[in-house]
């Protein structure tokens, strides 16, 4: 008998590769691109019965936010009358956990690479305000290149709850930070870092630093040993690895090392290559992406730039700057609407505009980076609070008339508008052109838009 | 009997007048049924921001674009007029989906170029006149609180007309427009909304209301 290929949307559904309490995971193939995917099937009845609708929506939003090369990617969500389908990147290499179980502990260099990738992924999520809260080797997958992918970021809670509340509270306590177990309010970032430390210990040692089969003993151990910072590393750990692990497995979340500290640690820094965000992510909140995007828009496509001068902007290009033509604001779910872009006109030579901008930015304590007639201004802070980046570019709109386009590339929009832009413009007063004697016919202006 | 059933279904699902079935809209546009269902979620939000009548009024459109329902803007007006295919002063769900489909990353470029031409042809003369371009440049400058003297505005318009109006008749026709866009592709960037690529992730509420029959979703690419 010939087997029928079942399809969901553009996906040809194959064998079942996993079965959870709420979801079945199937192998599937995108019939358009040929790409392999993992298809999670959730029956709606179950979702309704367990009142998980809002949770599902929240988890989908989280997965959409936390895109990173070391995080399993959520491609799409589909639905039919009775089922919800979550389409995820298919990871072929299996769990890191199984690798340790089958092959034993890993060499220190390999552990370092996995740990660097793990920290990169976790740092990325934390910068977006997302905490995993259930990091463990079973949630770390390996792709066909041997790169690490954190799975269930966001969906973990959803799928884990299946084993009932029992599972969430007792969970995988061997990886859970002491402050989480002691049931006090806790800092998600510090708790994730603890779990990363346990994972690092586990892959380097081949066994867990804190392991007890039953919860009461584990609790006791936490109280006695862990609270005192007692665990013993095997002799093969290098002194530097040991020093880092000690700083991570600090029972006090307040003194525990943070992401920045880990990234500065000599053991971590060895052979560290920060991952490049993939170029397809053109997201307004991503500094690099925006920088590149602006470049695309005006540099690569506009080769008509005058030798050595700023790029020319024609009348239609000017028009496209209108907020009225920017329909992406229809999709803006956040209510933080403040214009992301602002412009001013100057009659000063473009070189002078750029050097004034640089001087003002430096006086405001911003880091400045200029290329041609484009300048990136950044405020960097240790704790990420108030951090933002702005890109300014000068265009020629008419002979000896220039327009500076200032757009926020990352950071909090309100912060940008309130604190940065106004202050910035006040300081640039001497280069911003405001016609005095020959004001444009005001009646023309008023009749049009004002 | 059929009509009665129709009424019953409408009522049961709580759809407002002007609603069209996602399956029909999906067959005419690059969107899948699920994507149209996700767009309905956005449409519901936009069409109920002031009056919950299942229609997007001008004020609601302005509210979404500028977070200010009274903010008049020449370009927003033009977009609204083009979306309002039936010219009855409101945007219905079907009009919303069909119009947005031009902004889909997979929509034909020719459609995007033509849409923008119609948008800039303020007086619907099938040409963009120098006068219209001037009006739009002035509106843009005003929107950004940049006042330039009239002769500077004239200069900016003239320069662009020199490049675009190759037949030198003071207006840009359809043919000249296509040529001009080919040379300045950044102009049609606004005609592609990357937001339309991941609708199902952006508006996941549809998952609970989807009417797609199981395992029979049509393939789109």
UniProtKB/TrEMBL annotation, chain A:
Domain called Protein kinase: residue spans: 11-268
GO biological process, one term: signal transduction
Keyword Transferase in record: yes
Transmembrane segments: 193-211
A GO MF term: protein serine kinase activity
Annotated keywords: ATP-binding, Kinase, Membrane, Nucleotide-binding, Serine/threonine-protein kinase, Transferase, Transmembrane, Transmembrane helix
Gene3D superfamilies: Kinase associated domain 1, KA1 (3.30.310.80), Phosphorylase Kinase, domain 1 (3.30.200.20), Transferase(Phosphotransferase) domain 1 (1.10.510.10)
Annotated ranges, domain NAF: 308-332
This enzyme's EC code(s): 2.7.11.1
Necessary cofactors: Mn(2+)
Record family assignment: Belongs to the protein kinase superfamily. CAMK Ser/Thr protein kinase family. SNF1 subfamily.
Entry protein name: non-specific serine/threonine protein kinase
Organism the protein comes from: Gossypium hirsutum
UniProtKB/TrEMBL annotation, chain B:
Listed GO biological process terms: calcium-mediated signaling
Top-rank lineage group of the source organism: Eukaryota
Subcellular localization: Membrane
SMART domains: EFh
CDD domains xref list: EFh
GO molecular function: calcium ion binding; kinase binding
Keyword flag Metal-binding: yes
Residue ranges annotated for the EF-hand domain, each copy included: 71-106, 108-143, 152-187
Cellular compartments per GO CC: membrane
Keywords: Calcium, Membrane, Metal-binding, Repeat
Cited function: Acts as a calcium sensor. CBL proteins interact with CIPK serine-threonine protein kinases. Binding of a CBL protein to the regulatory NAF domain of a CIPK protein lead to the activation of the kinase in a calcium-dependent manner.
Oligomer status and interactors: Homodimer. Interacts with CIPK.
Similarity annotation: Belongs to the calcineurin regulatory subunit family.
Designated name of the protein: Calcineurin B-like protein
Organism: Gossypium hirsutum
């Amino acid at each position: 008998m010939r087997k029928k290929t079942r399809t969901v949307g553009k996906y040809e559904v194959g064998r079942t590769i996993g079965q959870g309490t709420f979801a079945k995971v199937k192998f599937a193939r995108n019939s358009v691109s040929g790409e392999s995917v993992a298809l999670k099937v959730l029956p709606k009845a179950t979702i309704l019965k367990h009142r998980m609708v809002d949770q599902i929506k929240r988890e989908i939003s989280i997965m959409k936010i936390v895109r990173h090369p070391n995080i399993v990617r959520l491609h799409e969500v589909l639905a039919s009358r009775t089922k919800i389908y979550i389409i995820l990147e298919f990871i072929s290499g299996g769990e890191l956990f199984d690798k340790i179980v089958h092959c034993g502990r890993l060499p220190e260099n390999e552990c370092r690479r996995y740990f660097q990738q793990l920290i990169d992924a976790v740092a990325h999520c934390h910068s977006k305000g997302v905490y995993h809260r259930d990091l463990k080797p079973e949630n770390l997958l390996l792709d066909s290149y041997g790169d690490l992918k954190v799975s269930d970021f966001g969906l973990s809670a959803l799928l884990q709850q299946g084993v009932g509340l029992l599972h969430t509270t007792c969970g995988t306590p061997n990886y859970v930070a002491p402050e989480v177990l002691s049931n006090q309010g806790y800092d998600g970032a510090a708790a994730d870092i603890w779990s990363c430390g346990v994972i690092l210990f586990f892959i380097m040692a081949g066994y867990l630093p804190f392991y007890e089969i039953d919860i009461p003993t584990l609790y006791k151990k936490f109280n006695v040993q862990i609270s005192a910072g007692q665990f013993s590393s095997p002799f093969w750990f290098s002194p530097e690895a040991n020093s880092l692990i000690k700083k991570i497995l600090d029972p006090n979340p307040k003194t525990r090392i943070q992401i920045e500290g880990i990234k500065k640690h000599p053991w971590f820094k060895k052979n560290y290559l920060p991952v490049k965000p993939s170029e397809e992510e053109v997201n307004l909140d991503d500094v690099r992406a925006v920088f590149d995007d602006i470049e695309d828009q005006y540099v690569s496509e506009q080769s008509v730039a005058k030798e050595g001068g700023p790029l020319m902007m024609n009348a239609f290009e000017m028009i496209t700057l209108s907020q009225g033509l920017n329909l992406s604001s229809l999709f803006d779910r956040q209510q933080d609407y403040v214009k992301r872009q602002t412009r001013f006109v100057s009659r000063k030579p473009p070189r002078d505009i750029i050097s004034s901008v640089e001087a003002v930015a430096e006086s405001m304590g911003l880091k400045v980076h200029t290329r041609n007639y484009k300048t990136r201004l950044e405020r960097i802070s240790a704790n990420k609070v108030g951090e933002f980046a702005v890109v300014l570019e000068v265009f020629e709109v008419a002979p000896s008339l220039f327009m500076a386009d200032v757009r926020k590339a990352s950071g909090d929009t309100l912060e940008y508008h309130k604190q940065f832009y106004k202050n910035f413009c006040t300081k640039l007063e001497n280069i911003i052109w405001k016609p005095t004697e020959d004001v444009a016919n005001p009646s023309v202006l008023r009749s049009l838009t004002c | 009997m059929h009509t009665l059933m129709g009424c019953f279904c409408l009522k049961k699902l709580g759809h407002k007048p002007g609603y069209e079935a996602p399956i029909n809209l999906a067959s005419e546009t690059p969107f899948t049924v699920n994507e149209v269902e996700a767009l309905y979620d956005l449409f519901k939000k936009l069409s109920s921001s002031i009056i919950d009548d299942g229609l997007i009024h001008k004020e609601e459109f302005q509210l979404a674009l500028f977070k200010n329902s009274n903010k008049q803007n020449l370009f927003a007006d033009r977009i609204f007029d083009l979306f309002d295919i039936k010219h009855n002063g409101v945007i219905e769900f079907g009009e919303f989906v069909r119009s947005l489909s031009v902004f889909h990353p997979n929509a034909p470029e020719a459609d995007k170029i033509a849409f923008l031409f119609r948008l800039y042809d303020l007086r619907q003369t099938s040409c963009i006149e120098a006068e219209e371009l001037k009006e739009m440049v002035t509106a843009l400058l005003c929107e950004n609180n940049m006042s330039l003297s009239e002769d500077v505005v004239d200069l900016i318009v003239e320069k662009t007309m020199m490049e675009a109006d190759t037949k030198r008749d003071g207006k840009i026709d359809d043919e000249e427009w296509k040529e001009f866009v080919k040379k300045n592709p950044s102009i049609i960037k606004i005609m592609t909304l990357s937001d339309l690529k991941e609708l199902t992730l952006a508006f996941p509420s549809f998952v609970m209301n989807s009417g797609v029959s199981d395992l029979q979703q049509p393939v789109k690419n």
